[in-house]
Specification:
Number of strands of chain A: 6
Helix content of chain A: 40-55%
Structural class of chain A: alpha/beta
Radius of gyration of chain A: 17 Å
Oligomer: homohexamer
Strand content of chain A: 15-25%
Largest interface: A-C, 16 and 15 residues
Strand order of the largest sheet of chain A: 1-6-5-2-3-4
Order of helices and strands of chain A: HEHEHEHEHHEHEH
Chain lengths: ~240, ~240, ~240, ~240, ~240, ~240
């Protein structure tokens, strides 16, 4: 198994459906060859075609989703527009890409837009570990919890950089205060060790709002940690 | 005639056609009431629905277009996607919103993407005053030239902030070096005096790339100068 | 009870006494109508006229003051100049606006300007929970402590953004390292629930030193949390 | 004659009158010793006490004032507050510190706050070379004009950095687009050669709005140019 | 004992050996007069001549080294170039400037460049408290550990600002995420109390990558804390 | 003739002589294959090994040097250190790499470090067109002048980005106010058409001091213009 830099898929800014088809098709082709894909966003809408591609191969997926927002809205601009960065996980549940018994969201916090935001996500099956719960039970307990929830199912990881506090990751589009620090998010990714990791995206990094490149450096470290887990898997399989 | 702050029209990021309809409809309604509209972008794609709305009332329009790019491409991502910030003036010519005998583009410069970019624009009727020509003949001569071209036709003004040099307007998405300085662009707008001004947009201001708010300050001054011309018109009509 | 956006009171940069009169008068008028006021600074000197206005209606006030500095200096530039952002709480004690038995300062830290700074504040009645004590006993214990101190007295909250660490709030005039993180300050404000909240200010936000707007976003979240507490009060009163 | 770095005078932020007295007294003492003073602001209000100190020694002064604003308002916040950065030159005329026959303002431009701003300044005696006139007649002609106006009178130079365009000097509090470029302002200062230079201030540099320190570098070069003129005077006197 | 500001030693950018000689000689002269030296970098290469100067007087030194990197590489650009900011502590061990039984490195973390980086440092004698261990055992335990290791030996402190997380110290050349926060590093420096402190450097502060001056403010606070420890030593000695 | 992206040569920060050997050797090898080299700095010291490599093939070179500084100092830190960004052109004259009859420096301006700086450069053969002269005679005359000076000799172009004003190129290490604007420098590079161009470097771009990437964008446009001249040469040769 070799790790390759695949590069950009064909993105059409003015047609999200065409972009989704292009992502699903090209990532699907890689998966067919047994290649593991690390996707770097771009906004969170790209998780939907990525989940489509991975689910096509692996069936309904366990998902561990790090974020400050549940991204399970019905729509953002009216029901004719179902695909935005606020809706991917509702669509994925509806399309049965996600196993509703193995879907965990970590770091969710307010201020919420609507009173029912968390309940809506939970009604779709999401097991939410809010930032408050995460800080109360501690990072090691969060890791244990997501291991218990996903078990040995094939698991897809979706990491929104805004799960991290704006002090550590100012370069993002919808920052939410009161989030993880850099050490905590590193621990949360390192904790994925020994899971059946089949896919990963890291989204919502937005350089114009960054400074000193600290968001980019953190994001690249997080991708490196995930890559290291894949390397460990290969090493263990060979051992 | 009163000047009012109309505010935002309904913009749907994932559906440019819906956004265009919304702009055309709401601006059209204002024009029907005899209101003069100042539109602040937003990217240059918005000029197309604005031209549709104004042309519906005034017929094929004379257009004075300040920009570093002609924005007359056939398409940017394939022919299924005709509406982007690189195409509005080709579409407007095709839809006969612009009078091809009274269409002037000022400040155009390279580096061009394709060898034929300027010829393509000229084939559509654009009379191009490149930045080189503008600096050679001087700002007063540019003003005389656009007066000669548009005469007393109803004229729509489209001002892309990237006509200005990045030293004066860093806050934009596709900056091009070697542009107008702030005094020159102010003179070019002041020179519109005594034209039959019926519409105006100022587009492509992008705050995340700005610093010290200098782009925003310049843009607001340019809108203020246009507003002052409208005030002069009213005063002259009353006099 | 409705929440209204009152806007700016009349501020005279060159005459702090005139500004104080204007703040006291206009805020006082709002309080007379039973309106709760959220004041956004501006430097910390504005707390004095705000305390005058609130004390006039509610008598000597309990005060919970989040800050890295005690702001209880005798003066900053010589005794003829008693009103600056370093002196409001000494003046308020002298004017008997604050109940010296119910005055708590949280987050105070050095480097101090003078060896006696903390003792001077304590001599005025301030019960100081330094940042060291806060971190040692934990945020929940700090919340319990301030509840014990203020009880059910009418309590005024003064929140200086420099109580937060500069990593989370760089946009301020006298940053002090080693402060609260964003989650801790959110918890400290949420902990005010069930107190007899009668007034609130949030001061010392200074945008030119900010980046990525992270200080402004944190400050607006803190004001939102306080506003939510007022909403809960109304709901409980109606229940 | 030696050049010395005098350092800060005693500034009281909350009492502009006390600050004015301190500036006038300490600068006056230096002038009494035959020392030439270069004052670096600070906002433009400091020119008034500086003019008082210099006028006390030299009598009513010729003044060359580079600025985008005339700074001759009656007041900024009501007539009880006569001393701000918008009023120093009206006060100086009223106090007969300036010779009204030798007062020239260069670079003045809009947008003006009130229709009468320029006429008010002219009524006080100011001979205004607007930025438009300066660009039309050229920098050399501006230099000739101010030489003609001030002749061999003792002349005080007041240089507001916002006379320069914000692209060259973003670090200032009230930037106005369409100003001098760096070369032009350097030429305007070099053109002071052979005048009877008796005082100089450079004001309104505001570092938090700067970037890459370009405003500070320009300002220090402008002060260096003036200093060089003083050195030339000394050399010529010795020659 | 008086504290004096010595200022810059002679630094030759193009000849690191000449710079090292200059540092060693000038700092050595100060030490001979019984003066305690606080050195502010500059990159970490300067620790080698500083250790040479201090070791010459005090013999092999105990060293407490706060950093994200061990800085014990053999070389960075080939073996002809032994002196860079990646090598000072290997050179110092080889030159027997450091007592290998009393050399502790705190805050070390990855991503490592080579698999053996930590083992190489340990083979030289370094007792490494990685950031993971520091966060697991807590700051107080780290302080106890370094007290146990260095005992009452003369101890030199080397503090690389990149031991701190980039959120708190973006202004540095090789930032590593997942580091200490500002309060923790303050506690770690305050914990040096009662050690036999003989030298201190604070290195790798790089202003162009800073914002809001937060790195500089933190660094100056850390130097102030060390200075306060020296003041306490003097006071205790006099007591 | 094909244009290829060669990438980095081996640079040793702590040994400028080793870096010079590496540049000279690797660029020399390219020139031997008839490849034209565009070198992007890095500081101006790299021009010396580049001139060595080009002179070896082409003999003593005509040089057109755009800069605010002459870079002809004897040394910067004492005579043992002859190689820095202040000395390349003196060394190149001494080593007879430059034809002293065909060496022109354009844009030179103060403030000079030493009274003799310009005379020293002229004594080496440099024909200096100061910024004052350039602005007085106009850009077209400058172009005619350098054509007259270099004629049809093989000519090497060295472009220091600080020849441009800091408003247009803040991202550089020793900015000098009062320089060319972006249009003027573009014209100066376009004016090189029809010369016998054999080498080019563009140096002193320093991203940490940049903002909005305007310096990088200008620099890449200047390299593109030079590249376009090479493309025209090829086309003309084929024609």
């Amino acid at each position: 198994l070799k790790l390759i830099d695949y590069g950009d898929v064909d993105v059409i800014p003015v047609d999200i459906r065409a972009t989704f088809q292009s992502i699903e098709k090209e990532v699907g082709a890689l998966l067919e060859h047994g290649i593991k894909v690390i996707s770097l966003g771009g906004d969170h809408s790209i998780s939907l075609p990525l989940l489509r591609a991975h689910s096509k191969k692996f069936g309904p997926l366990a998902v561990i989703h790090f974020d400050s927002h549940s991204d399970t809205w019905e729509s953002e601009y009216g029901k004719e527009y179902p695909f935005t960065h606020a809706t991917p996980f509702r669509r994925a549940i509806e399309e049965q890409l996600i196993d509703p018994n193995a879907f965990v969201q970590i770091g969710i916090r307010g201020p919420l837009y609507a009173a029912g935001d968390l309940d809506d996500a939970r009604a779709l099956g999401a097991q939410i570990i809010t930032i408050n719960e995460a800080f109360e039970i501690g990072i090691q307990s969060v890791i244990e919890k997501y291991h218990t929830i996903v078990g040995n199912r094939p698991v897809y990881i979706s990491l929104d950089i805004d799960s991290v506090d704006p002090a550590y990751a100012p370069g993002t589009g919808t920052p939410e205060v009161g989030g993880f620090n850099s050490y905590q998010i590193l621990q949360l990714i390192r904790g994925l060790k020994n899971l059946n990791l089949i896919g990963f995206d890291l989204v919502e990094v937005c350089p114009p709002y960054d400074h000193g490149e600290i968001t980019s450096i953190l994001a690249s470290n997080l991708a490196f940690e995930y890559l290291s887990l894949l390397a460990l898997q290969i090493k263990d399989n060979k051992g």
